[in-house]
Amino acid sequence: MSSWQGILHPISDGDISKLSPEWLQTHIQKGPLGDVYPIPIHIAEGDTPTLLYHVQSGLGVHERPDYGSWDGHYRVINGGSTHYAYVIYTVINADGILVSAMF
Q1: Residues in domain Cellulose-binding Sde182 nucleoside hydrolase-like (predicted)?
Q2: Total number of domains in the chain
């Protein structure tokens, strides 16, 4: 599973407790910088999508998006095309429910 989507995706059963307004107020919104830190409306900001591309892990060949990377796995949408889209996988989650998601 790609890292960023894996953090928030329901399939991962990720711990999202650190995204609650209460947690942010207690641990992040402190001091002068914390005073201007906003409560996220949709998705929390983060540096993961940007930072992880600087980690040389062998993931992410620019010429081959189908290899997958930190942001997910792509597949050509038309034969011989250079247009790629997220691959959708179907998995069984921790509750034994069959779910589909992009990774």
Answers
A1: 4-74
A2: 1
Q: How crowded is residue 11: how many other Cβ atoms within 10 Å of its Cβ?
A: 19
Alpha carbon 95 to its chain centroid, in Å, reads 21
Q: Is 65 helix (H, G, I), strand (E, B) or coil?
A: helix
Cα-Cα-Cα-Cα dihedral sign, residues 6, 9, 14, 16: positive
Question: Looking at the whole model, is its pTM more than 0.85?
Answer: no
For 44, left (φ over 0), alpha (ψ -120 to 50), or beta? Answer: beta
Residues whose CB falls within 8 Å of the CB of residue 12, separated by 6 or more in sequence, listed in order: 1, 5, 6
Q: Quick one: CA torsion of 39, 42, 44, 45, rounded to 10 degrees?
A: -100
Q: What is the pLDDT of residues 2-29, one digit of tens each?
A: 444 555 555 555 566 777 788 888 988 9
Residue 42, exposed/middle/buried by CB under 10 A (0-12, 13-18, 19+)?
Answer: exposed
Q: What's the one-letter identity of residue 33?
A: L
